[in-house]
């Protein structure tokens, strides 16, 4: 039982548009790309920081925007990109919820592995 208590529980949040036929969702990867845009000022720099091709990062963002029916990024050509107001709001909400889910998931896991078996 002691080994179980050293483990951690992971909870992955995705935000989807139930009206969309697309399977694209705002999840950990898109959130990381958006954080990179916020930190580095461009999707290209964000993609490089993640060791991802710019074309793949752009496709992921575009697919997510299409699926959610919101624009996440404002693109300014050679001058980089910034998150839209909706993009910032979605990212902030995602990060807050993910943090709370992670804490609750860990709390529940710890409670479950410390309970005596019935």
UniProtKB/TrEMBL annotation:
Q: Which InterPro entries match?
A: LysR_HTH_N, WH-like_DNA-bd_sf, WH_DNA-bd_sf
A GO molecular function assigned to this protein is: DNA-binding transcription factor activity
Q: What is this protein called?
A: LysR family transcriptional regulator
From which organism does this entry originate?
Answer: Adlercreutzia mucosicola
Annotated HTH lysR-type domain ranges read: 36-87
Pfam families given for it? HTH_1
Endpoints of the signal sequence:
none
